[in-house]
Please model this.
Amino acid sequence: MLRTAFTELVGCQVPIQLAPMGGGVVTPELAIAVARGGGLGMRQRAGPTPLADRIDWFTQHWTELAEALRPLRQAAAVYEPFSPQVQETFDRARQWARSAVELVFLPELSARTAHERVPLATALHHVTSWSGWDELQRPGADTGDASAAVRLLLHALLAPTTPVTHFCPH
Model:
């Protein structure tokens, strides 16, 4: 892994970005290949994806990622208080997760006032946090039920009519 400001910012392994240039040049397969190679693969869209579709997509992928990493995260959590390296890795993973949720739901966050945006982003981070997933996945809990709960919470938080100003402590 080559560490640069770019790799730190976007969480990729090499400072390579495939950026859509218009005209259908960037295919999903090319974006996937760049991402598998350690870069940041991006592709273009003709218009914004509807909120419900983004929530479904995010929830599906978040569930798969959270479940795949859960045993590793639980084992590493034992060492986090004693290891600066594990602490740094966890901090980077948390920042990556925050960035991912903000990127997927950027249209909704951008549509809010600055006063509303901060508590909404905080709520989104909590709903999609590793600790939030672990709480939903207590022993005996069903992954499908946990995923449905995340989906429901995202819909509730991101609905266009959701007032968030009363969440702000200021």
Notes: Helices lie at 5-10, 28-36, 51-79, 84-104, 106-110, 114-127, 130-136, 143-158. Residues 5-41 form one domain.
